[in-house]
Design a protein that fits this description.
104 residues
């Protein structure tokens, strides 16, 4: 197996050196993965079906809410009363996420 990986890497390197990869669509842009690599194939299929139906799995919406709160807290001055409220809200969401993970 390692031989094929080595061969693929070598051909990719040669293509880059020859300029064959220049000007490709999306060049220089970050990669965006639609699926999470650590999610089982079954869960990926469920997530795909829900996404096509316009629904978001609860764990995904929870992670988004946590990420949004963290960003909001980062922007608020730490001595602001609103920051403490947001930190409590974040702690609650993190606790709730842990509880859901333990139950499943």
């Amino acid at each position: 197996m390692w031989f094929f990986e080595f061969l693929a890497e070598r051909r990719i390197r040669e293509a880059i050196e020859n300029g064959d990869m220049n000007g490709l669509p999306g060049s220089g842009q970050p990669l965006v993965f639609a699926d999470e690599p650590f999610v089982s194939p079954e869960q990926r299929m469920v997530n795909h079906i829900l996404k096509r139906a316009g629904l978001i799995p609860s764990d995904v919406s929870m992670r988004r809410a946590i990420a949004d709160l963290r960003e909001e807290i980062r922007r608020i001055p730490q001595d602001d009363a609103q920051a403490e409220s947001k930190r409590r809200e974040l702690a609650y969401l993190l606790l709730k996420t842990d509880e859901e993970r333990l139950q499943s």
